[in-house]
Design a protein that fits this description.
By secondary structure, this protein is mainly alpha-helical. The protein contains five helices and no strands. 5% of the residues are buried.
Length: 80
């Protein structure tokens, strides 16, 4: 099943952004793209690595990225 296809993940992002803008209370937002990626990437990596029982090769395959890219992302997020 494709999570974006059924809309659950997309709806969660929209709800979170709506709350973020509400919480800004009129302040101007900046760097929204980077914020969303940074907030979503770490828990996604943790979850997928857990599903792969810590096997980085399997996790990289599940994520559809190169193992070296996964290692860099894990280091970036202090997950190694």
């Amino acid at each position: 099943m494709n999570a974006c296809h059924n809309g659950e993940l997309a709806n969660a992002v929209v709800r979170t952004l709506e709350q973020y803008f509400h919480d800004l209370d009129g302040e101007k937002p900046t760097a929204i793209y980077d914020m969303v990626i940074k907030c979503a990437e770490k828990p996604m990596l943790q979850f997928v690595l857990g599903r792969a029982n810590g096997n980085q090769s399997v996790a990289a395959q599940l994520l559809g990225i190169n193992r070296n890219t996964l290692r860099r992302k894990l280091l970036d997020h202090d997950l190694l």
